[in-house]
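Researcher: Structure for this, please.
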Amino acid sequence: MKRLVVVSAGLLGSVAAADNLQGVDRLLCATAEVIACVEQDECYTIAASDLDVPEFLVIDIKNKMLSTTKASAQNRSTPIASMIKSDGNIYLQGMEGGRAFSFVINEAAGNVTVAVSRDGVTVTVFGMCTDADI
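Model: Predicted structure, C-alpha cell format:
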C-alpha cells in the first residue's frame, strides 16, 4: 500500500495541467496512468486497454452520467449516484457491475483521480479533463 501512495503522489505531480472546469457542465477526461492492485499482492502500472478502461470519458455533470465517446465504439454509460461540489473539487460516486467508483476532479486544474474497486481488486486512474463542449 505504501508503494501505491508513493507512486500516486509522484504521478499527481507529473500529470500535465488540464483546463479550468469551474462552471462547466460536460467534461471530456483522458486517462494518463492506470494502476491495478490485487489483494495480498503488489500494485502494477498497466495499460488502460488491458483492463478495458476507456481512454476518454465524457462526464455529464448536469445529467449525472458517465459515458464513453462516440469514437471509442464501446458504447458504455453509467449513472452517477452521488455528486458533490466542495472546496474547488467535484466528487462523483456510483456503482455498476459489482464495482464501486469514486472520482475526484479538481475544478481549477482539471486533474482527475478515479478509484474503482471490487472484491479484492482496486484500479486507480489518473488523468486530466477539459470542457467537452469546446
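Researcher: Any notable elements?
Model: The CA atoms of residues 24 and 121 lie 32 Å apart. Confidence is low (pLDDT under 50) at residues 1-15.
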